[in-house]
Specification:
Helices cover about 20% and strands about 30% of the residues. It has about 80 residues and is an alpha+beta fold.
Length: about 80
């Protein structure tokens, strides 16, 4: 199999990924068939995405999510 057609490795549950179609960071929740499921990093409804439409979050994106989570906790919001 050529490298361009290699399947995308399945990330660990909890990994932050960017859905390049939605331009949204999500937390990897699992897979079913050929689909992966992400949930918004600050909570919300899960969505389905094709693995080839994702990439790992950058260090800057991960830091943004960590900061947003800490701020939400400091306001007493549930995540």
């Amino acid at each position: 199999m050529c490298p361009a057609h290699m399947p995308t490795p399945v990330p660990s549950v909890g990994t932050l990924l960017l859905d390049v179609v939605r331009n949204q960071i999500g937390v990897f929740r699992g897979e079913l068939g050929a689909s992966w499921f992400l949930r918004p990093a600050l909570g919300g409804r899960e969505w389905e995405v094709a693995p080839e439409h994702t990439r790992p979050a950058t260090p800057e994106q991960r830091l943004h999510v960590q900061t947003a989570r800490a701020n939400a906790r400091s306001r007493g919001e549930l995540l």
